[in-house]
Sequence to fold (359 residues):
Amino acid sequence: MASGCRRVARFIVIVAVLAVVLLAGAGFWGWQRYQAFADRPLQGLGEDATLEVARGDSFAGVLRKLRAQGVSDGHDLEWRTLARRTGTDAQLKVGEYALPQGITPRRLMDDMRQGRVIHYRFTLVEGWNIRQLRAALRAATPLRQETAELDDAALMAALGHPGQHPEGRFLPETYLYSRSDSDRDVLARAHAAMEKALAEAWDARAPDVPLQSAEQALILASIIEKETGIAGERPAIAGVFARRLRIGMPLQTDPTVIYGIGSSYDGNIRRRDLTTDTPYNTYTRRGLTPTPIAMPGRDALRAAVNPQDGDALYFVAVGDGSGRHVFSATLAEHNAAVARYLATRRRTLQARETEPATP
Fold:
């Protein structure tokens, strides 16, 4: 009886050992399979494939989207194990992710955990007015549209600045955005960037600058931006306007007149435009305009508060297409410069008329 019990016990031990060996082997095989899955490039992806993780997506939902892209690699359990081990399931970042050829599941998990989303670019151009900015935002893809139906007043209220005029309030720069971002997000960043840039410029202003506030600096910078074809001339143009402000001389700058004409401007300024009074006509009114007329860049902001010294009160374009200006201290000198400008323009137009037509 005792020997029978011993045989049974040995059998049980052998079975247990075999079970442990089998389990260990299965575990080792499973681990090797998991490791191979995690570091093997995904198959079935098309060219320029992407994966969008939306707000509220679970990892299971993201995996279904990945399967829909044609990825058949790995069992769902392997994907969930990898997500847990990398912490992706708990730190899934919203956005659009690139799925380039050769990407591995481990790299994809790391991208989603770190939020390495695809970024797009939106460039706000120096000198744009608010109409141009909003039109460019409406055309930007894949930027989500949240403000397209709002008027300017409602737009500023939505950005947290009710009652503020939108002109000049957004800093010209290139802004990166992801598919989950909206036009409101981009505008909020551009507004904050302008406030910071304006504050920095105002803090670094010259002690004798003829401006009473950062708001006035923003207005003057917008006029400088629209008058300047060459970046290096901004301080000189700022100097002309600063001297005119000091002596109470009208700024007499065409871009302000154009802004006052608004969307009906057809590309030409006529004598009646210069004599028709509007809040933005600096020929009929002295001082600065009531608001900015465009989005000034950082260089224009710095020029407005640090104008170049000198005695010039006038400037006019050279007329050769270079964007350069001639600066004059007296009206007689200025009139002579204007005559040269008109002569140069006539020669340029005549040369264009005699050029053979391009086939």
About this structure: The beta strands are 49-53, 95-99, 120-123, 174-177, 314-317, 325-328. Confidence is low (pLDDT under 50) at residues 24-30. The radius of gyration is 33 Å.
